[in-house]
Amino acid sequence: MSKATSSPVRSVAAHAVLITYTVIALFPVFLIVINSFKSRNSIFRSPLSLPGPETFDPIGYTTVLKQGDFFLYFQNSLIVTVVSLFLVLLFGAMAAFALSEYRFKGNTMMGLYLALGIMIPIRLGTVAILQLMVASGLVNTLTALILVYTAQGLPLAVFILAEFMKQVSDDLKNAGRIDGLSEYRIFFRLVLPLVRPAMATVAVFTMIPIWNDLWFPLILAPSEATKTVTLGAQIFIGQYVTNWNAVLAALSLAILPVLVLYVIFSRQLIRGITSGAVK
Amino acid sequence: MATVSLKKLTKRYGPLEIVHGIDLEVADREFIALVGPSGCGKSTTLRMIAGLEEISGGAVEIGGKVVNDLPPRSRNISMVFQSYALYPHMTVRENMGFSLKIAGRSQDEIAKRVDEAAAILDLNHLLERRPSQLSGGQRQRVAMGRAIVRDPDVFLFDEPLSNLDAKLRTQMRTEIKKLHAKVKSTVVYVTHDQVEAMTLSDRIVIMRDGYIEQVGTPDEVFKRPATRFVAGFIGSPPMNLREAIVTDGKLAFPNGTKLPLPRQFRDRVAAGDKVVFGLRPDDAYPTGHGLHSGEETDVHALELPVTVTEPLGNETLVFADFDGADLVARMLNPRPLKSGDKVNMSFDLSQAHLFSAETGRTLRA
């Protein structure tokens, strides 16, 4: 760190900006969590106050947990997110490796083609996707969601990972070739460990939209057995009456697993950055 | 241990030909250096031997067997890269043992061979560190350790010392030489530094624009350069090279200065020939301060004005104006000289070189 940035005034100013941003970003989350512990009346009367002895009420959580399927919803969300994430990272990294490592005709065009999906929202194809899923009998299965999310996550993954893989030194890969590594082993044993920070970045960017998505679960897999948490929470939102306690409790609970995953990946991310810094 | 031979080896990128059908025989246990300016095709040639670059034409043989279509791992070679190319996420021990692990050798054998290699290179105390915790010289030694652990037929070095500072480079040069004396395997060493090539190798291959200019021992390429390019490339400071025209027993330089035609070339040129005259700084010196003082057979002296001097302690490089441009002379037992001083400069013409101005080839018999 340079001297200038460590002067107290600058440091205070920088922290003030960061803290302001953090407060703004976390405020809605904070609001959801505190209100999920309050009784219905106090949510409306004083939405900004913390739950006190009089206003505390775990009714939201008991409602959600009594609604027995909620564990199933969690399980569905987790399966869909983790499997999609795994497939996005695996195929994304493989495609990125091919694009960055091998010279072949149409390499650039292929790269552009694969990156096109970043700019075109996959939801535009919803009708066609639904027809496809109906025709292949995948409606109301988690597989349908996994396939769609994998397709949705791949363009960005390929784009980011290809850029990072181009920076892995050729000498290193060649050293691997001379040491007797096959191309697959070079990919798995040399290149993947070295682009781990990029993988973590891609994982975070891929994971959150999948976990939060309401659109595709609603259209492709709305059955009781395949509902995800986000979709499950919608049962408490009615056209005329909304069970706010339950909605807030469900949302609070839904934050937890994704938070855990995020912490795991962000630790990787930070480790990657610092190990690069001292190299 | 093995021989390496290149037969009409060619490399093309599309219509662009980089290496133009070169032939080379490297003997078993020979240390051969490929040297040349950047872009001369030396690294490409090395990478074709390694199998990292596809061969467009001709053949590479290792141990008498054509290896054109073998992948690098099946050629039993090892390579040391300029950037060291150590695996950053592995310790020194893992780096060195990695190829053996991939080959499926037992834990005991790997440990034994890594320890042996580490002992040769004095790396024992560093085995548990990661590359990021090592200095440049140590990384270079690890890279060499990784190469010798495999006990390959041929070692390939791709400018291994270019990333080191001058002092460390000299030190590592000695280590590489010692290493070769110990492991006694065939070495192909690519460098752009002629000093490295001269000091290390048994034979030097000088390349330029994808052609081999000359192959010879360090002594041969220094004393009998085959072309004007080799003459200018080998030796430091470089040989003085001047165009001249032969006129009745003399060399006439463009601005009117004349020198006697060196005796050894008298029968080899005719009046009117355009030639390039070459004289090493060692063979031009202020009279009485020369390398060969007292043994010269064909000395000619000229009075020249000094333009600049570079004192090096034991000797001084004297730049003097010769026919309108600087000529470098090496003055042993230096005495103080200022720019503008007139100095009586001796030219030991028995050591002079003449090249055809047209083809650049030597006019020596």
UniProtKB/TrEMBL annotation, chain A:
It is found in: Cell membrane. CDD domains: TM_PBP2. It is a multi-pass membrane protein. Residues 74-265 form the ABC transmembrane type-1 domain. Keywords: Cell membrane, Membrane, Transmembrane, Transmembrane helix, Transport. Pfam families: BPD_transp_1. The keyword Membrane applies. One of its GO terms (cellular component) is plasma membrane. One of its GO terms (biological process) is transmembrane transport. SUPFAM superfamilies: MetI-like. This is Carbohydrate ABC transporter permease.
From TrEMBL, chain B:
One of its GO terms (molecular function) is ATP binding. It is found in: Cell inner membrane. One of its GO terms (biological process) is carbohydrate transport. Residues 4-234 form the ABC transporter domain. Pfam families: ABC_tran, OB_MalK, TOBE_2. Its main location: membrane. InterPro entries: AAA+_ATPase, ABC_transporter-like_ATP-bd, ABC_transporter-like_CS, ABC_transpr_MalK-like, ABC_transpr_MalK/UgpC-like, Mo/tungstate-bd_C_term_dom, NA-bd_OB-fold, OB_MalK-like. Keywords: ATP-binding, Nucleotide-binding, Transport. SMART domains: AAA. It is a peripheral membrane protein. GO terms for cellular component: ATP-binding cassette (ABC) transporter complex, substrate-binding subunit-containing. CDD domains: ABC_MalK_N (cd03301). Belongs to the ABC transporter superfamily. NCBIfam families: PRK11650.1. This is sn-glycerol-3-phosphate ABC transporter ATP-binding protein UgpC. The gene is ugpC.
